[in-house]
Amino acid sequence: MKSDARRFYRHATVVRATHWINALCLVFLLMSGLNIFNARPDLYLGSRSSFHHPVLSIGADDSGANPKGVTTILGHKFTTTGVLGVSGEGDERAFPAWSTIPSDYDLATARRWHFLFAWIFVLNGLLYLTFSVTSGHLRRDLVPKRAEFAKIGPTFLDHLRLHFPHGEEAKRYNVMQMISYLIVGFVLLPIMVLAGWSMSPGVDSLAHFLPQLFGGRQSARTIHFAIAWLLVLFTIVHLLMVLISGVWNNVRSMITGRYDLGEERPS
Amino acid sequence: MIFDRRSLLRFGAFGLGAATAGCDRVDASPRGQDALGFGDWLTYRTQRLLLGNSLAQEFPESAISPHFRPNGSVDPKDPDYVALAKNKFVDWRLKVGGLVEKPLALSLADIRALPARTQITRHDCVEGWSCIGKWTGTQLSHVLDAAGVKKEARFVLFHCADSMDMNSLDSTNASDSQKAASSGGGANSSRYYETIDFVDARHPQTILAYEMNDATLTIPYGAPLRLRVERQLGYKMPKYLMGIELIRDYANIRGGHGGYWEDQGYDWFAGT
To answer: Strand, coil or helix: what is A92?
Structure first.
């Protein structure tokens, strides 16, 4: 039996609740977002669309016997049949059915899913940010102390060797966690919201500077798309870290708040 | 442990599949659609609360799109419209009726005689693209005032000349030709229509445009007259206007959702 003393209360209720609501929202926002993207699978820069010069374009080439999926990034063409451009049973669509909500191409319904979860996401995010600032979670748990900054090199190497902290050290996020959570929660997600708002002609009428901040509405759309994939990348690494640093311990601590510190080991 | 991880991944993949299937079931039911529409309602209320009479950004001449993408109907085949176009819209009249004190039938000359406004604005399509164009027309409020809106009117309904099931749509709609082939006579029921509330109807940038980029409005862009509602998406700006009707409610009109695309599931408020 593990003693209760080793179970350390690591995550506050608000952090745990907002974490799971956020995770749910991001899944819905990503998948409905990909359906919305399919309506015009091109990305541009600036205020207006330069239809002949998209920075990214996902389409189909019908010249052969079977349609080919073609993804063009800054003029470089890649064949992406099966996933992008053409997928399923020869369906010509940018992102495949299994990755979108709804699974069929349906812009009207995808927008409804997207905006409903966007509201939940924003309100949930505001709750988290307010809590983080007022409770000291931000200052205490997320902003690295000078000594922790100094350990960034060794911490990185420990991660590579899959050595994760135990005992006293595991009571706090390590410096790499702090930096990545700060970037995601306080930079990427807020930019995501601002770039999303920039695409709204209503919001833009109130804040002309908002789309300009991104270089125009079409740039904002491109940035919105790019950050979506940075968040996917973060989520993959995050899940990988959860898996290899003790999946049940991590998942439990995010549900009940209690984290098993394990045996104190010499590092 | 390996086994655990693998089963976890499998569980995750299963969950994702189940989630999408579940979503498809939710949004296929009317009740599910209503629940999803809550976000749209919240957006409408919030924008109405916060935006006031804010003006959409106006751009310099240099920002105008070299090619403005025409969308929706680009060349209506409806016989009454074709006849009007053949005669350069000399016989065209904009009928203003419904809940008004004085019904009107305005010619293009009548409308051009009203005070004009020119604006260079960004047009955002629900698909995601944007074009910038210069529009000249008269503020809708001038026409509304000339007709005298009755107190009980709550929405402005726009009747258009283009039937959506028989007119060439832009190239992204692959089923055009099939639709055109299947449409017989009496296609009135698929004519484009739209409704807006009075906040937008009385907005200074809401104009009935007869010029685009300093030239008389051409057919792909909605000749002889189209609406501009600059704080909403493109589908709220009907082209080929034939009539304006002041109404109390749109629930009994056509599909009951207040517009051609709204009847296909798109949100009535398109400020986002």
So the answer is: strand
Decide if B73 is inside a domain: yes
Question: B56: left (phi > 0), else alpha (psi -120 to 50), else beta?
Answer: beta
Q: Which residue of B has its CA nearest to A211?
A: B57
Question: What residue has token string 């509330």?
Answer: B197
Distance in angstroms (rounded) separating the CA atoms of residues A129 and A181? 12
Q: Which of A32, A43, A49, A124 to mutate to test the interface with B (most CBs of B within 10 A)?
A: A49
Mean pLDDT in chain B? Answer: 88
Residue B269 lies in a domain: no
Q: Tell me the nearest-neighbour CA distance from B181 into chain A, angstroms.
A: 23
Please indicate whether, in this complex, the C-beta atoms of A51 and B5 are within 8 angstroms of each other.
no
**Tally of structural domains, chain B:** 1
Q: How far is A176 from chain B (nearest CA, A)?
A: 24
Per the confidence metrics, is the pTM higher than 0.80?
yes
Do A37 and B37 count as a contact with CB atoms less than 8 A apart? no
Q: How distant is the Cα of A46 from the closest Cα of chain B, in angstroms?
A: 10
pLDDT tens digit sequence for A18-74:
999 999 999 999 999 999 999 999 999 999 999 999 999 999 999 988 999 999 999
- Determine whether domain A4-41+96-260 maps to CATH 1.20.950.20: yes
Per-residue pLDDT tens digits for B6-41 = 555 555 555 666 667 788 888 888 888 888 889 999
Taking an 8 Å cut-off on Cβ atoms, the answer to whether A102 and B63 are in contact is: no
ipTM of this model? 0.91
Chain A residues in contact with B261 (beta carbon < 8 A): 108
Q: Where in chain A is the domain with CATH 1.20.950.20?
A: 4-41+96-260
- Tell me the CA distances in angstroms from B213 to B37, B112, B209, B223, B228, one per residue in order: 37, 16, 11, 13, 14
